Amino acid sequence: MKRMLQKHPGWLGGGFGAALLSVFLTGVPSRLPAAEATRAYDIFIGFSAKRECIPEKGPFLTELSWDIHIPDVRFVFRKRDVFGQEVNWFPLYAGAPENSIPLLAHFFPGQIDAQLCAFNKCNEKIERAWFKKQDRAIQAVLSVVPSEDIAELRREALEPESLKPLAKAVPPILPCLLHVKVIAHDNFTYTCACTVRGQDAGGTGDEEFYLSLPINDLLQGRRLDIEFPFTSDTIDSPGTLSMRFIPTGTIKK
């Protein structure tokens, strides 16, 4: 997946999309949908993974989780000219479609947490390890994959069950790929007795993935609860990535 991610050029640099893509989905005509905008959604993105602490093999993270809440987002399907490029859809944050301005990337705050197997084997003895830094505030970026990258990146995209038939489709039928980047580099760092003073033994890193948006479901205002198996580069254990699209105002406080 890292090889694919490196091919995603930067709209703002560092892997953000340079333009928006044309929308052609199985079950969706090769034109803009009649309903051009979804209702407002609150999007919740979460990840969690755990592994056993083995002191002889430490230090390493035994738990990793992060949560992001993205409130009041609409997905607008409308042909627009954005900086000289024609676009067919874009996310809209906290606004109405009739006066919307296409934004190609959105930034949102989130929270991260981690637990440490706080041991290491040093000169045949089990010594202690410890966190040097614990910063729980992270940031997530949502952007749109440019159409020229879809053919290659679609193989790496997470795909909801409702879009599974799309895997059998052939060009020019294209999925609508949303790029999510979680910025968590060195939010948690740790060291141990056997490292050179001042050096880290490890830490958290950024995460990113692609999601094929279920456009029909969103246009119909459905609530979506989606889970995928997901392995982070930060913790050596399989985890679960969850995404919930909940119509704004329907969550009971």
Structure commentary:
This protein is mainly beta. It is 6% helix and 45% strand. It has one domain (2-247). It contains three helices and 13 strands. Strands 1, 2, 3, 4, 7, 8, 11, 12 and 13 form a nine-stranded antiparallel beta sheet that branches. The chain has a four-stranded antiparallel beta sheet with strand order 5-6-9-10, with no helix packed on it. The longest helix has 5 residues, at 2-6.
Name a few traits of the molecule:
mainly beta; disordered N terminus; elongated; 253 residues; 9-stranded antiparallel β-sheet
What is the approximate shape?
A: elongated
What class would the helix/strand composition place it in? mainly beta
How many helical stretches? 3
Largest sheet: 9 strands, antiparallel
Write the layout of secondary structure elements.
Elements: H1 2-6, E1 41-50, E2 60-82, E3 85-93, E4 105-117, E5 119-122, E6 125-134, E7 137-144, H2 150-153, E8 177-183, E9 188-192, E10 202-203, E11 207-212, H3 215-219, E12 224-231, E13 238-247
Antiparallel strand pairs: 1-2, 1-13, 2-3, 2-4, 4-7, 5-6, 6-9, 7-8, 8-11, 9-10, 12-13
Question: How is this structure best summarized?
Answer:
With 253 residues, this protein is mainly β.
